[in-house]
Amino acid sequence: MADTELKAEEPVHIESRIDPKCDLSALNTEDAEFLASFTEAQRKRVDIRLIPMLTILYLISFLDRSNIGNAKIEGLDTDLQLDGVKYNIALCIFFIPYILLEIPSNWMLSKVKRPSLFLGAMIIGWGIVMTLSGLVQNYAGLCVTRLFLGAFEAGFFPGAIYLVSAWYLPNESQVRIAIFYCSSATAGAFSGLLAYAIAKMDGVGGYGAWRWIFIIEGLASIIAGVVAMLLMPDAPGSSGYFLGPEEIRYLQVRQLAVPGRRHHGQGEGGHKFDWKNLVKVLKDWQMYLLAIVYLSSTGPNYALKFTMPQIIKNMGYQSSMAQVLTIPPYTVGVIATISSAMLADRITWRMPFAIVADLCMIVAHAILYVFGPTQKQHIPACYFALCLACVGFYPIPPTVNAWLISNTAPQNKRAMAIGYFVGLGNIGGIFGSFIYRDSEAPKYPSGYATAFSLACAGIVSSLILEFCYKKINDKREHVTEEDVRRQHSEEALEEMGDRSPLFRYSY
Question: Is the pTM of this model over 0.90?
């Protein structure tokens, strides 16, 4: 891949055989023809190796952070005397290191040559912490384990997003993110079923059921971390153990053919920490509008995930049945997320799916707010609202993360942006830990009203983003590429990234 520009005297008429999102002007004739010679089989090989692994690992990650909700109704709050807001504080503490360590973790991931070892070590770390959580004897011990759990889990989700951006084109990313992100919904369903089974171990070895929930799921995480070290694919250039040289070249060339993705002087490892790119990320207006949309999901989602077993129990069900009844809402959330992601990638338009998801949340929380005081008399309506809320929660994170990947460049900035953005989104976990208070049960007016308001804010932000992206793109269309290249060198344009006059935002 010597040249980065297609020479005028060597026209290539192979556009019909290449993804329409690829920019042939970024390639020389040889690379363009090489790109056209490959089929989707190579991409499917990556799908089979990478996406199931990320899905299983994110499932385990979410199980370990959210199983405290299942443990609570199995006696955690009683044994550790979690009166008042102690339980909420224990939830909140997890998110402090989780948010603060997102950017450093993703920078380190972009620097190492073997992301599989880095992520695998993190998984083993949080598995050990999770196992030790089953041995704590008081509130302070629980808080310490939640703090370390947040520290070890911090880098996994942004790291997974970064790996997807390294392997796939922007118009292929949302459905892949959605597949592994859906494991967080599956975790909600699976954790209820798993907790129901583990609860049968109450008293075994002198341990309560809630302790066995932590211990067994923690040991499973340790095993998963070892497997990840052995089987997870690394960056394309470091995956010679399951890809041939031409397959690696194909994956690298197709990344170069995406507008705004040509990165000057960057490999797949050994990046220096670039403070200029960090400043660009912090000052990037789109980060904060996207974050509002993200928060419209993460805050209410974390809140409901921690509280759903209790809400269902308040309808009059026993603890074991409340665990099982968490499964259908998460299941419909998975279906909605995969369906919307497939359609969004096909039409390459994210905004409508974010708005529809927020509308579902508005309706769901309006129903819960109205019928909350009398939910035992309106069980069908309230249970339907829980399902509809999950239809709203889960499609949004894949949507906004795919939106972000498409609209940030160059590569170093993208790595930092993903870490920062996921950190912003997980601020929702902090306030989400407090909006459902035991003192307000079973009505939970603060929780339902907060979720309703955030969904409204998410809709407004999505519309503003769409308007701004179109406005900027229209302005850039009035400047010819020849004029731009006369004023700026290739290196300068690559340094500008998404601020380059040649870059086009996706909707």
Answer: no
